[in-house]
Amino acid sequence: MNTPRQTIAWDQRLARILVRPLARTSVHPNAITTLGLMMGLLAGYLFAQGDPVLANWAAGVFMFAAFIDHADGELARLVNKTSTFGHYYDHVAVAVSYVTLFVGMGIGQRYGPLEDWAVPLGVVAGLAVAVTMSVRVEIEVREGTEAVKQGSIAGFEPEDILYMVGPVTWLGYEIPFLVAAGIGAPLFLLWVVWERVRRSKGQGQL
């Protein structure tokens, strides 16, 4: 019986092409992870300034950081430098970038229409994303990478929704995006936790 071939996400395909020249250099995959982390922190800082022009730049910087999340892994596989440390360093870097993004957005919008609700929404969204990723890492450690592998539709994965940070910011929909994240991220976390508990009960362990 033939095994269905999994569709490779578009950003992963592009990353695979772009990192090929780096395979002939001394650039280490963890250095790319660090660059992505720095870009994520910079995006959060720029969002926190509350300046529309800086927010537009922040959106572009964050999209670049999100793309780099694929580039480091592709380079590691290409030069055979995959490691357990690099794998989980990537998880930590991405989580920090996401938390910084939402907290920065919240701080930047605190003098806008959301007023005192802006910062709590950003913090809640950021923490919910971080905890969600932590639960998924725990499942991966316990059950293996296949247990947390995301499916894709037409080359797009669920996490690709964060590329929308660019368009929604440039079109002036940053506030609705922040509100949606502040509500949706905790709800998604609850679903992930419920799935974790359900799977554990099915395996007879917690």
Which keywords apply here?
single chain; Four Helix Bundle (Hemerythrin (Met), subunit A); 7 helices; 206 residues
DSSP strand content: under 5%
The CATH superfamily is identified as: CDP-alcohol phosphotransferase transmembrane (TM) domain
Q: How many distinct folded domains?
A: 1
Major β-sheet annotation: none
Detail the topology: elements first, then pairings.
Blueprint: H1 10-18, H2 29-48, H3 52-78, H4 84-108, H5 118-143, H6 165-170, H7 174-202
Notes on the protein architecture:
- It is a single chain.
- The protein has 206 residues and is an all-alpha fold.
- It has a single domain, classed as CDP-alcohol phosphotransferase transmembrane (TM) domain (Four Helix Bundle (Hemerythrin (Met), subunit A), Up-down Bundle), CATH 1.20.120.
- It has seven helices and no strands.
- Helix 5 runs parallel beside helix 7.
Summarize the structure.
The protein has 206 residues and is mainly α. It contains seven helices and no strands.
